[in-house]
Write a structure and sequence with these properties.
The protein is an alpha+beta fold and 196 residues long. A hairpin with a 2-residue loop joins β7 and β8. The protein has a single domain, classed as OB fold (Dihydrolipoamide Acetyltransferase, E2P), CATH 2.40.50. Helices cover 20% and strands 39% of the residues. The longest helix is centred in the N-terminal third of the chain and has 18 residues.
């Protein structure tokens, strides 16, 4: 009886330690105005390729994503291609997943909100600092191309105004409307009402 109790407690402890990290990423909802204000570079484009690797200390897996920018909504860089570094990836048999991290797949198009930040073992790399909230999938809908936040499906804490759903919610925002809104926010520093 004592052996079964110890085994049961051990199993419960292991289950608790496995499930606890899944809820460890808590994101406060970021509106389009905040995403525009807090990120130096905003681009629309397509993932060309990616490469995952260990950082210099061999303590964390990172992935460099080659991104072809079709439209620059904010910021400047040379050429039409940039490298974005994100946390996580696969090296050999080992895969590191980041809860609520952006998912950037080869051949797919996105609107990305980017900033230079430090990640484990690297400093000053261009990254999606707002995780899933900083990545919008560009998808075809009945009424045309839409930008749909990857934060859909992730629990968000409400912002100061009480909003807890990502901009555009599940249906997203028409891509041309979103690019226009972003450009306007860049020009007027948040003078446009929030997109619900």
């Amino acid at each position: 009886m004592k052996k079964w109790l110890v085994c049961g407690l051990l199993a419960a402890a292991i289950a608790a330690s496995v499930t606890a990290p899944l809820g460890a990423t808590t994101l406060i909802r970021q509106g389009l105005d905040t995403l525009v204000a807090d990120n130096a570079t905003i681009v629309v484009g397509q993932v060309i390729d990616y490469h995952s690797y260990w950082n210099a200390d061999h303590t964390f897996i990172l992935t460099d994503v080659r991104f072809a920018a079709e439209e620059i909504l904010k910021g400047r860089f040379e050429g039409d291609e940039l490298t974005i570094t994100v946390m996580g990836g696969q090296v050999g048999e080992l895969t590191t997943l980041i809860v609520a991290g952006p998912v950037l797949e080869k051949g797919n198009s996105y609107v990305l909100f980017l900033n230079h930040e430090s990640l484990p073992g690297v400093d000053g790399v261009l990254t999606v600092r707002d995780l899933a909230q900083g990545a919008f999938d560009v998808v075809m809908a009945k009424d045309g191309l839409r930008a749909v936040s990857q934060a859909n499906g992730h629990p968000l804490l409400s912002d100061p105004a009480g909003n807890f759903l990502p901009p555009g919610q599940e249906q997203g925002i028409l891509l041309n409307e979103m690019t226009s809104l972003v450009r306007d926010l860049v020009r007027h520093s948040g003078g446009r009402p929030e997109v619900k």
